[in-house]
Amino acid sequence: REAIGLVCEAVPGAKGAVRRRKPCGRSLNSILGKSNLKFAGMPITLTISTSSLNLMASDCKQIIANHHMQSISFASGGDPDTAEYVAYVAKDPVNQRACHILECPEGLAQDVISTIGQAFELRFKQYLKNPPKLVTPHDR
Protein backbone atom coordinates (compact mmCIF):
# COMPACT_ATOMS: atom_id res chain seq x y z
CA ARG A 1 0.00 0.00 0.00
CA GLU A 2 2.83 2.33 0.85
CA ALA A 3 4.47 1.72 -2.54
CA ILE A 4 1.19 2.29 -4.38
CA GLY A 5 0.73 5.55 -2.47
CA LEU A 6 4.23 6.72 -3.40
CA VAL A 7 3.64 5.98 -7.08
CA CYS A 8 0.29 7.79 -7.04
CA GLU A 9 2.00 10.87 -5.61
CA ALA A 10 4.89 10.73 -8.09
CA VAL A 11 2.99 10.05 -11.32
CA PRO A 12 0.85 12.91 -12.66
CA GLY A 13 -2.71 11.79 -13.35
CA ALA A 14 -2.41 8.46 -11.47
CA LYS A 15 -5.61 7.39 -9.80
CA GLY A 16 -4.76 6.51 -6.24
CA ALA A 17 -5.94 6.33 -2.74
CA VAL A 18 -7.22 9.74 -1.68
CA ARG A 19 -7.03 8.79 1.95
CA ARG A 20 -3.48 9.09 3.31
CA ARG A 21 -2.43 6.21 5.47
CA LYS A 22 -0.09 6.47 8.39
CA PRO A 23 3.43 5.74 7.04
CA CYS A 24 4.84 2.33 7.81
CA GLY A 25 7.05 2.36 10.91
CA ARG A 26 9.95 0.51 9.29
CA SER A 27 11.96 1.61 6.31
CA LEU A 28 10.66 0.23 3.02
CA ASN A 29 13.77 1.12 1.04
CA SER A 30 15.03 -2.46 1.07
CA ILE A 31 11.75 -3.67 -0.45
CA LEU A 32 10.73 -0.77 -2.66
CA GLY A 33 14.14 0.04 -4.04
CA LYS A 34 14.74 3.28 -5.91
CA SER A 35 11.76 4.66 -7.78
CA ASN A 36 11.94 4.00 -11.50
CA LEU A 37 9.11 5.75 -13.31
CA LYS A 38 10.49 5.13 -16.80
CA PHE A 39 7.46 3.03 -17.77
CA ALA A 40 4.87 4.89 -15.68
CA GLY A 41 1.56 5.32 -17.47
CA MET A 42 2.65 3.13 -20.38
CA PRO A 43 0.16 0.50 -21.61
CA ILE A 44 1.62 -2.95 -21.09
CA THR A 45 0.82 -6.53 -21.92
CA LEU A 46 0.95 -8.77 -18.86
CA THR A 47 1.54 -12.50 -19.31
CA ILE A 48 1.21 -14.76 -16.28
CA SER A 49 2.21 -18.42 -16.34
CA THR A 50 3.32 -21.01 -13.82
CA SER A 51 6.92 -20.21 -14.73
CA SER A 52 7.01 -16.40 -14.91
CA LEU A 53 5.31 -13.03 -14.92
CA ASN A 54 6.20 -11.01 -18.03
CA LEU A 55 5.63 -7.27 -18.62
CA MET A 56 5.94 -6.01 -22.20
CA ALA A 57 5.35 -2.51 -23.57
CA SER A 58 2.28 -2.85 -25.79
CA ASP A 59 3.33 -0.30 -28.40
CA CYS A 60 6.99 -1.21 -29.04
CA LYS A 61 6.96 -4.83 -27.76
CA GLN A 62 9.93 -4.11 -25.46
CA ILE A 63 10.18 -6.49 -22.51
CA ILE A 64 10.06 -4.38 -19.37
CA ALA A 65 10.41 -7.25 -16.88
CA ASN A 66 10.39 -11.02 -16.83
CA HIS A 67 10.24 -12.41 -13.30
CA HIS A 68 10.41 -16.13 -12.68
CA MET A 69 7.77 -17.20 -10.18
CA GLN A 70 10.39 -18.33 -7.66
CA SER A 71 11.74 -14.75 -7.59
CA ILE A 72 8.35 -13.28 -6.58
CA SER A 73 8.05 -13.10 -2.81
CA PHE A 74 4.79 -11.16 -2.40
CA ALA A 75 1.81 -10.01 -4.43
CA SER A 76 -1.21 -7.93 -3.40
CA GLY A 77 -4.01 -6.13 -5.14
CA GLY A 78 -7.62 -5.16 -5.35
CA ASP A 79 -7.80 -3.68 -1.86
CA PRO A 80 -10.79 -1.33 -1.49
CA ASP A 81 -8.66 1.82 -1.06
CA THR A 82 -6.33 0.93 -3.96
CA ALA A 83 -8.78 -1.05 -6.06
CA GLU A 84 -7.14 -0.34 -9.42
CA TYR A 85 -3.60 -1.43 -8.47
CA VAL A 86 -1.62 -4.66 -8.13
CA ALA A 87 1.80 -4.68 -6.50
CA TYR A 88 4.34 -7.47 -6.34
CA VAL A 89 7.84 -7.79 -4.94
CA ALA A 90 10.38 -9.63 -7.08
CA LYS A 91 14.12 -10.06 -7.14
CA ASP A 92 16.13 -9.86 -10.32
CA PRO A 93 19.80 -9.31 -11.25
CA VAL A 94 19.15 -5.78 -12.56
CA ASN A 95 16.95 -4.22 -9.87
CA GLN A 96 17.78 -6.53 -6.96
CA ARG A 97 14.59 -6.67 -4.86
CA ALA A 98 11.96 -4.21 -6.04
CA CYS A 99 8.25 -3.56 -5.76
CA HIS A 100 6.49 -3.40 -9.12
CA ILE A 101 3.14 -1.63 -9.36
CA LEU A 102 0.59 -2.15 -12.10
CA GLU A 103 -2.45 0.05 -12.65
CA CYS A 104 -5.32 -2.20 -13.70
CA PRO A 105 -8.35 -0.09 -14.68
CA GLU A 106 -11.95 -1.22 -15.01
CA GLY A 107 -11.85 -3.72 -12.16
CA LEU A 108 -9.03 -5.84 -13.59
CA ALA A 109 -6.86 -5.72 -10.45
CA GLN A 110 -8.86 -8.48 -8.77
CA ASP A 111 -8.58 -10.67 -11.89
CA VAL A 112 -4.82 -10.07 -12.12
CA ILE A 113 -4.14 -10.89 -8.46
CA SER A 114 -6.37 -13.98 -8.70
CA THR A 115 -4.49 -15.16 -11.79
CA ILE A 116 -1.14 -14.68 -10.05
CA GLY A 117 -2.49 -16.70 -7.12
CA GLN A 118 -3.67 -19.48 -9.45
CA ALA A 119 -0.25 -19.58 -11.13
CA PHE A 120 1.44 -20.01 -7.72
CA GLU A 121 -1.04 -22.72 -6.76
CA LEU A 122 -0.57 -24.64 -10.04
CA ARG A 123 3.21 -24.32 -9.73
CA PHE A 124 3.08 -25.75 -6.22
CA LYS A 125 0.91 -28.67 -7.40
CA GLN A 126 3.44 -29.34 -10.18
CA TYR A 127 6.20 -29.32 -7.56
CA LEU A 128 4.33 -31.83 -5.40
CA LYS A 129 3.85 -34.17 -8.37
CA ASN A 130 7.48 -33.98 -9.43
CA PRO A 131 9.73 -32.74 -6.60
CA PRO A 132 13.39 -32.12 -7.46
CA LYS A 133 15.77 -34.93 -6.65
CA LEU A 134 18.16 -34.41 -3.79
CA VAL A 135 21.73 -33.84 -4.89
CA THR A 136 24.14 -36.12 -3.05
CA PRO A 137 27.82 -35.23 -2.56
CA HIS A 138 28.78 -37.88 -5.14
CA ASP A 139 26.54 -36.22 -7.81
CA ARG A 140 28.28 -32.85 -7.52
UniProtKB/TrEMBL annotation:
Boundaries of every PID domain copy? 40-140
Q: Which SMART domains match?
A: PTB
Respond yes or no to whether keyword S-adenosyl-L-methionine is given for this record.
no
| Alphabetized Gene3D superfamilies for the sequence | Pleckstrin-homology domain (PH domain)/Phosphotyrosine-binding domain (PTB)
Q: What Pfam families does UniProt report for this protein, alphabetically?
A: PID (PF00640)
Q: Which InterPro entries match?
A: CEP152/SHC-Transforming (IPR051235), PH-like_dom_sf (IPR011993), PID_Shc-like (IPR006019), PTB/PI_dom (IPR006020)
Q: Name one GO molecular function term.
A: receptor tyrosine kinase binding
**Gene Ontology biological-process annotations:** epidermal growth factor receptor signaling pathway; insulin receptor signaling pathway; intracellular signal transduction
Q: What's a single GO CC term here?
A: plasma membrane
Read off the CDD domains from this record.
Answer: PTB_Shc
Q: Which UniProt keywords apply?
A: Growth regulation
Q: Which SUPFAM superfamilies match?
A: PH domain-like (SSF50729)
What protein name does the entry list? SHC-transforming protein 1
Organism whose genome encodes this protein: Leptosomus discolor
